Amino acid sequence: MLVLASSSIYRSELLKRLQLPFETMAPNIDETPLPGESPRETSVRLAQQKAHVVATKYPDAMVIGSDQVAFLEGRQIGKPYTHDNAVMQLRAMRGKTTHFYTALALLNGKTGKVQTGVAENHVTMRDISDEEIEGYLLKEQPYHCAGSAKTEGLGISLISRLTGDDPNALIGLPLILLVDMLRRENVRLF
Known about the structure:
Blueprint: E1 2-4, H1 9-16, E2 23-24, H2 39-55, E3 62-72, E4 75-77, H3 83-93, E5 97-108, E6 114-125, H4 130-140, E7 159-164, H5 167-171, H6 175-184
Parallel strand pairs: 1-2, 1-3
Antiparallel strand pairs: 3-4, 3-5, 5-6, 6-7
Helix pairs in contact: 3-4
């Protein structure tokens, strides 16, 4: 059995692309970064923690945990949750490159083995106006997305350049890494 440790509809939609049956469960953990923790370390710790929390309810399952941390000019950027916070994030990001670290943890409940990896993506925002920020936020309301923009939606219009390991990771689940991990666990897609 495969279980996605997430309440994110975006991660669930991504996982459906692999055409494997799975269940979901929200891990409900504190996602606050620890003092001195790098964005990569935060994302890996949280991905593992999510997988371990859900594995207590599904002890024989393969549990997928994932977490994304955005990093801009020396500080971590989380989910904005509110309109005002999203405005502040997008203003800070305009004309600059933000680094996104999307960690993945695959926990095999039967063996206790945990695989982890991180997909890194770099997103450069256009030098957008306050009016463009306001218009975008009113249309898409990306208040539960790190960095306040959905690349899979209208948010792509705010971006001038995108590079990295896996474009799916920006949406929330690094499928390339996941397929590699599943293959190591002898889970075949075909």
